[in-house]
Specification:
The complex is a heterotrimer of chains A (318), B (400) and C (296). Chain A has 17 helices and 2 strands. With 318 residues, chain A is mostly helical. In chain A, helix 2 packs parallel to helix 7 and helix 4 runs antiparallel to helix 10. The longest helix of chain A has 27 residues. Chain A is globular. Chain C is mainly alpha-helical and 296 residues long. Chain C has one domain. Classes of the chains: A mainly alpha (318), B alpha/beta (400), C mainly alpha (296). At the A-C interface, helix 5, helix 11, helix 13 and helix 17 of A face helix 3, helix 4, helix 9 and helix 11 of C.
């Protein structure tokens, strides 16, 4: 166990960091907001943490915290800016925002280290810290998916007009997911910088969008658990794929494509369907217990499930 | 031969025996006899060495820099076969565990930490891309496992005693092109820089202006292109408009043929100067258009050094093609490690690191010619290379 | 100056050639194809593999590229996008899935080409065509440059006309406006979608071959670099408008050229992203887009 732990430390760290990044996109999606701002926040967090650590030797927690705070504020401002957009358009706008930050980093001169980036950000952040943070985040998110608040968010996603008429502060919820997404992304970025002790423009590029998105889609977009499944799979997949050698990338592409086309609700969706079938077979009465499970709630209604990614529906469904 | 197929664990010499028979003398006469490192003499005994010595080899065998990774893997395979044949390590066998990093920093760091945590690994041959190396160095340094890099030209890669680099930074031998330009009577020059690549930025912004001061040419214009730029028409026109005597193209390998072609089409007829990324067959697609382009390189298959030619012959016998600089650097890295292990007569990381440092202080003759070190960073005198329209040809000043 | 204008027009034509097919598929059948760049590259790559064996003239090469592109695109539609659209009842979910599916599929041709070329650039040096440059005194122009300008603008005009005047084009636009009503009016959605994807793929392949001739060589990763530029051009002009893409591509190229000529160029990549962002904030429909746009 101990050797395994030591030799796989980087993968373990990456799993939780990718998880946080994936969550920074999953959280807005759950409220029907198709935003990649989390990837931009990752860059903000990564650079803030590295700059503070290298220049001012602040403790790791302060460096990451500052990044989180900054990204949360930027997230709020961004939410105000893109308030009019939805769907793919919002996606594109936020991707542009994330990539723009990459260019900014390349042109940041001494502050960001230009094309080389920054290195030597030595801190005391450890794997255990990352896991602790990720666990706390998961617990909080799991809680937010249940109860009145969870239903409020679902309502914002499913039918914003209805939600407004029910007294839900739709605009408020949307702004909040931008802030949360910013904080999560920055937290992932900051921890990654400090654990790797380095950050460069190429580590905050477009590939993060792809990684995070595939994790959520393949894991399942409706719950934090889906993001967790996706993060585990995509962090450990490359080391499994070594057996296919030179065609690793090809197999990766085929897997993503196949999952996106034929497993639309992600592995979580498959598991839930399978679980429900099992239960139905076990006892004939509809299982009350199943509904209590955090993630199952959302998947109960297939129609709801289908609409989940879309955001405010309105015109999409009759 | 499996030219760098990244199948997990590879026993050092599986299948190499038959190859060696075919390679015959070419392989036997290689570097350890010509090598000045002295490892060849001390190695035979090897009482302190375990039966197998494991080395982690992190290569980008797939992905956008696979051209470098695959070529480096060939160099390592060749060196391994020779080391075994040579008996440098006595009865001990070098086991190289080659892993495909696919140019990802996270993967590279992960392999490095696996090697660091597994005490059976003695050393690491580090990855090509600077971003990967920057992630590997703190792990190697922190956990005390020696690593020798191939490529990874960025500053900050060499962080301490345990990190070595076998690829000399381009700016360290760029000087040789200055004499050439002076000989050609160049008085004005333009610079084109890929702004996304640290090495190219440094060359374009620091090294070349300094070269201009030393060799009496003036930089009349300097422009940048994006990391992934494909079209250089605007820059080419403005350079052609300024009509300098020479144009420095500090762009990535795949961009080089395009930039040269467009520069020529824009009507520029002066000298075209590149850097080592122009080599490794990258100009093939530009063909005749790129004729006359010149760049300083750390290695070229045609260079005259005896130890280089021994390597080139062995390489050609094994793979039927000319080696690139990536193969030469990786080959040197593998031999460097093996000699250090023989010298240390131990698979202990600390002892090997010490032996590496001693070897570096001495320098050696390898595939890249005479290699010396500045600290842990390799240095060579460099060779000027010209594209003759179909092949890369090294030349000496005064030949034309 | 005249040279800069010509250069900007050429760059704009390259963006346009790439973006035309993407815009067509996005604006009519609602497919934002992230694998467009991969198809573009792979068509050019296939032509490269063939020209190594037999020396072909440029029209044959272009035709070859277009055919490969069309075939790949149809394959993509049948194997991936159709099943997605069939399964997902919600149009937004389908949109997102198509996006991700496209990203995944794009990796496949890229991996194959990278593997075969080892990421070394490839070109058509064996082809029966050589670039020649004419110096007109105030401006230098090459034959391939002219060919690209003419092809890009000609094809944009042709497609614009086709959408406006020809029956399938009209039907296609009807789908773009309201697919349900269009289906009720007897439009065969599936056949038209296949036709559109074939045209889009053909355009991608054609653009890939032309671009390879123009640049001398391209690398397997080239397609990706164009993808975001094409986005910017489409968003700028407005999704679904052919005139919009033309203007968008030219404006993007124009601004980039100005920045390149007047500065050291390190901010150029920011232009495309900045334009997408600003345009979406100020005028989400783009300059020439339909007024109907989904918002909240």
């Amino acid at each position: 166990m101990n050797t395994w732990w030591l030799s796989n430390q980087i993968l373990i760290q990456s799993t939780f960091i990718s998880l946080l990044l994936a969550l920074s996109i999953q959280v807005p999606l759950r409220a029907g907001v198709f935003s990649f701002a989390g990837v931009g926040s990752y860059a903000i967090g990564a650079y803030t943490a590295a700059i503070l650590t290298i220049r001012y030797q602040v403790p790791g927690i302060v460096a990451i915290g500052a990044g989180v705070l900054l990204a949360a504020v930027v997230g709020y401002l961004l939410a105000l800016l893109v308030a009019r957009l939805a769907g793919l358009y919002l996606g594109m706008a936020t991707i542009s925002f994330a990539l723009l930050l990459g260019v900014l980093a390349t042109n940041g001169g001494d502050l960001t280290g230009g094309a080389t980036g920054l290195y030597g950000a030595i801190s005391t952040v450890t794997t255990e810290h990352v896991i602790a943070v990720a666990v706390v985040v998961m617990v909080l998110l799991a809680a937010s998916e249940r109860g009145a608040f969870g239903r409020k968010v679902d309502a914002v996603r499913e039918d914003p007009q209805l939600a407004v008429s029910l007294g839900v502060n739709v605009i408020g919820v949307r702004r909040m997911v931008f802030v949360v997404s910013g904080a999560l992304g920055a937290c992932a970025g900051g921890m990654n910088s400090l654990l790797r002790t380095t950050v460069s423009p190429e580590t905050v590029g477009f590939h993060l969008v792809v990684t995070a998105l595939t994790m959520i889609i393949i894991g399942g977009a409706l719950s934090w658990a889906g993001a967790a499944i996706g993060a585990v799979i995509f962090t450990w997949l490359p080391s499994l794929l070594h057996t296919v050698g030179e065609w690793q990338l090809l197999v990766y592409g085929l897997l993503v494509a196949f999952a996106a086309v034929y497993v639309p609700n992600g592995l979580l969706g498959l598991l839930q369907t399978g679980w429900r079938r099992l239960q139905r077979r076990g006892r004939r009465i509809p299982a009350e217990g199943a509904a209590a499970g955090t993630s199952v709630t959302a998947a109960q209604d297939p129609e709801q499930e289908l609409a989940a990614l879309g955001g405010p529906t309105g015109e999409a469904r009759p | 031969m499996t030219s760098g197929v990244p199948i997990g664990r590879r026993r050092a010499l599986s299948g190499a025996g038959a190859l060696l028979l075919a390679v015959g003398l070419a392989a036997c006469g290689s570097p350890s006899s010509g090598g000045g490192g002295g490892g060849g003499d001390g190695g035979g005994g090897g009482e302190g060495l375990p039966d197998t010595i494991k080395i982690m080899n992190i290569r980008a065998l797939t992905g956008p820099v696979s051209f470098a990774g695959l070529a480096a893997q060939q160099g390592i395979d060749l060196a391994l076969a020779e080391i075994e044949e040579d008996g440098l390590l006595g009865d001990s066998t070098l086991e190289v565990d080659s892993r495909d990093s696919a140019a990802s920093a996270q993967e590279a760091a992960s392999f490095a930490s696996q090697a660091a945590a597994d005490t059976s690994f003695t050393a690491i041959i580090g990855p090509e891309a600077s971003a990967q190396a920057l992630a590997v160095s703190p792990i190697a340094q922190g956990q005390g496992i020696p690593v020798v890099y191939v490529q990874a030209g960025s500053e900050g890669v060499l962080t301490g005693d345990f990190t070595f680099r076998m690829t000399p930074p381009a700016e360290s031998y760029f000087e040789i092109v200055g004499d050439y330009l002076e000989q050609q009577g160049v008085a004005t020059a333009s610079v084109l820089i890929n702004t996304g690549n640290p090495t190219l930025v440094q060359l374009g912004e620091d090294t070349i202006p300094a070269l201009g001061e030393a060799h009496g040419f003036e930089i009349v214009s300097s422009s940048g292109v994006e990391t992934t730029a494909q079209d250089f028409t605007s820059q080419a026109s403005s350079i052609a408009g300024a009509a300098p005597d020479a144009a420095f193209l500090m762009v990535q390998g795949p961009q080089a043929p395009v930039a040269i072609t467009q520069l020529r089409q824009a009507g520029f007829d002066g000298e075209i100067i590149g850097m080592s990324a122009m080599g490794a067959g990258n100009l093939q697609s530009a063909g005749q258009t790129a004729e006359g382009a010149v760049w300083p390189a750390n290695f070229n298959a045609g260079q005259s050094d005896e130890s280089s030619q021994t390597f080139v012959e062995a390489f050609q016998a094994e793979y039927g093609e000319e080696p690139t600089n990536y193969s030469a650097e990786a080959y040197d890295a593998m031999w460097f490690l093996a000699r250090a292990i023989a010298e240390a007569d131990s698979a202990d990381r600390g002892a090997v690191q010490q032996a590496m440092a001693d070897l570096a202080a001495e320098g050696f003759d390898g595939a890249q010619g005479s290699v010396t070190f500045e600290g842990n960073d390799a240095r060579v005198s460099g060779v000027l290379v010209r594209w003759d329209g179909a092949a890369e040809v090294p030349f000496e000043l005064g030949e034309n | 100056m005249a040279q800069d204008v010509l250069n900007a027009l050429t760059l704009g034509s390259l963006y346009l050639l790439f973006a035309l097919g993407m815009s067509l598929a996005w604006g009519t059948i609602g497919i934002l194809n992230f694998a467009h760049g991969s198809i573009f590259m792979f068509a050019a790559f296939s032509a490269h593999l063939i020209v190594r064996e037999v020396s072909l003239p440029i029209p044959a090469m272009i035709l070859l590229g277009a055919l490969v592109g069309a075939a790949l695109s149809v394959l993509l539609q049948v194997l991936a996008f159709e099943p997605i659209q069939r399964r997902a009842k919600d149009h937004r979910k389908a949109e997102l899935q198509i996006l991700v599916g496209g990203i995944g599929i794009a990796i496949i041709p890229l991996a194959i080409a990278q593997r075969i070329t080892k990421s070394v650039p490839f070109g058509y040096s064996n082809g029966a065509f050589s670039v020649s440059t004419y110096d007109l005194g105030f401006v230098r122009v090459s034959n391939i440059q002219l060919l690209i300008l003419v092809t890009a603008l000609g094809l944009a005009g042709l497609i614009g006309w086709w959408l406006r005047a020809a029956r399938p084009g009209l039907a296609l636009r009807a789908i773009g406006v309201d697919s349900e009503v269009a289906t009720m009016m007897g439009v065969d959605r599936r056949r038209l979608a296949l036709l559109t994807m074939a045209v889009a793929g053909g355009l991608a392949g054609l653009a890939g071959v032309l671009l390879t001739y123009y640049l001398g060589s391209i690398a397997p990763e080239t397609g990706d670099a164009f993808l975001l530029k094409a986005f910017a051009a489409i968003i700028l002009g407005g999704v679904g408008s052919i005139l919009g893409v033309v203007v968008g591509a030219m404006v993007l190229a124009g601004i980039e050229t100005v920045v390149l000529v007047t500065t050291d160029g390190s901010w150029t990549p920011a232009i495309a992203f900045g334009l997408i962002f600003l345009m979406l904030l100020v005028r989400p429909n783009g300059l020439f887009g339909r007024q109907e746009v989904r918002r909240t």
